[in-house]
């Protein structure tokens, strides 16, 4: 479980293919604090550490993950957002993030406004049915954010200077593909309605 508060960024140092899987070697500032089998969010995707050495570690992404996220497009030298699993006894600063990416989206607009930045994103609403509510939460590449200007298949977020400095948002441009994880509570409610609980609630 994660909160969507990025701790640091890592740099992809090596990519190895094994069948349909890819193993990423990543340099991170807190590698010495991690161990094999730890869970770590990479652009919002929860992956398990399989090896550590010096200031680098390795994680493996299977084909399903590569297809449904932007990890399959990573190149050597790319920056990834990192967050370690949530620890008990700490403040819950973001929102509940599972590290299970629902789909990807595309950046369609970037503008600097008075020291902050506006980003617009579009996503395939028709085939997935994933939805947002005004002022609700979304996780973009592992970053917990509040959405506005919500429409079916599009939304806007504001990024403050600190977030630009400590995440990979500074690399985004029109056409950038991002990972999206929608609010888990909303997903459960949507599923209940799909199973017919809407009619059961109406009868009561």
Describe the overall structure:
The two termini are 35 Å apart. The strands form 2 sheets. This protein has a 7-stranded antiparallel β-sheet. It has helices spanning 63-68, 161-166, 184-194, 197-203, and strands at 8-18, 21-27, 39-42, 45-53, 56-61, 79-84, 103-113, 116-123, 137-140, 143-146, 148-151, 154-159, 177-182. The chain is mainly β and 204 residues long. The protein is built from 4 helices and 13 strands. It is globular and about 45 Å long. The protein has 2 domains: 8-84, Elongation Factor Tu (Ef-tu), domain 3, CATH 2.40.30; 103-192, Elongation Factor Tu (Ef-tu), domain 3, CATH 2.40.30.20. 30% of the residues are buried. 15% of the residues lie in helices and 42% in strands.
